[in-house]
Amino acid sequence: MAITTTTASSPLFSMNLNDSLSSAHCPPLLCSLPHHRPHLAGKFRVSTTSVRPKPYVPKPPMFSVSSGASQPMVPPYNVLITGSTKGIGYALAKEFLKAGDNVIICSRSDERVESALQTLRAEFGAQHVWGTKCDVRDGNDVKNLVKYAQDNLQYVDIWINNAGSNAYSYKPLAEASDEDLIEVVTTNTLGLMICCREAMKMMLNQPRGGHIFNIDGAGSDGRPTPRFAAYGATKRSVVHLTKSLQAELRMQEVSNVVVHNLSPGMVTTDLLMSGANTKQAKFFINVLAEPADEVAKYLVPNIRSIPTSGSTRPTYIRFLTGLKAYSQIFSRLAFGARRNRYLVEE
């Protein structure tokens, strides 16, 4: 699982090694792996137990604070993705556009927004994609993002909270600077809360309602993330925030606005590769990591299937499941599969 810069994030993957590769010796990018607990040959053992939030089933009837009647949600969908000028956010935007949807991208960098917008419009047409600058840490910026979306699309069906940061920092917390800690926490926690708040306020007033997807990362399952402890702590809060919002909507008997979790797994971003400085890190990146485009090809149809089916049930969509991770590690140990796929191993 990958993380990116403050403008386009892809969460770190979650993995957990056995005692021989415990968190005390685990490289910073390799600290948890989802779901069952199969045993591998030799010194590797994969623990794939994960904490998956039990989804709340909203109560009928359909509810909207708007005066209009509830409307069905049918494609093409209007999609907004934060931190979407590179990495997994950009790849998701492309896949939605390929599916015929309308997409708004954003980043805190004007230059990156303009560059990404030109590329996407050249391929998919200016009538399907828009972009604007937005710093998710700033409440006014996010409110302006909502207004921008309403001005151009009238409503948003799918809002994906992808923006996040690790400040490109891999070091013990005792060595972290104030600036790095503030960057990580305000982007990943405060920024997510602001975006959820504004997305929910907007969708509650839409007859179509809407779906919000919060992207998780390493630490989201409660496992340790040494050398990026602040990042892991903020990603743990993603799951809690999502569950709390699901509970709030249920208490309000709102069923046409739903908050979900989204897990892209281990994505080969620049930041992930920058942390590949140990033998173990190279091993797991080669075995488990996938390019952003491949991950997006899996995630987008699963995301779109939720409004298409009319489901009002919160979901947790995962790309890298425990079974998939175990199978790939076993293939590597048994047959040498994926050796030196991205990085030359010693």
From TrEMBL:
This is chlorophyll(ide) b reductase. It is found in: Plastid, Chloroplast thylakoid membrane. It is an enzyme of class 1 (oxidoreductase). SUPFAM superfamilies: NAD(P)-binding Rossmann-fold domains. InterPro entries: Chl_b_Red, NAD(P)-bd_dom_sf, Sc_DH/Rdtase_CS, SDR_fam. One of its GO terms (cellular component) is chloroplast thylakoid membrane. It holds the Pfam family adh_short. Keywords: Chlorophyll catabolism, Chloroplast, Membrane, NAD, Oxidoreductase, Plastid, Thylakoid, Transit peptide. GO terms for biological process: chlorophyll catabolic process; PSII associated light-harvesting complex II catabolic process. It comes from Helianthus annuus.
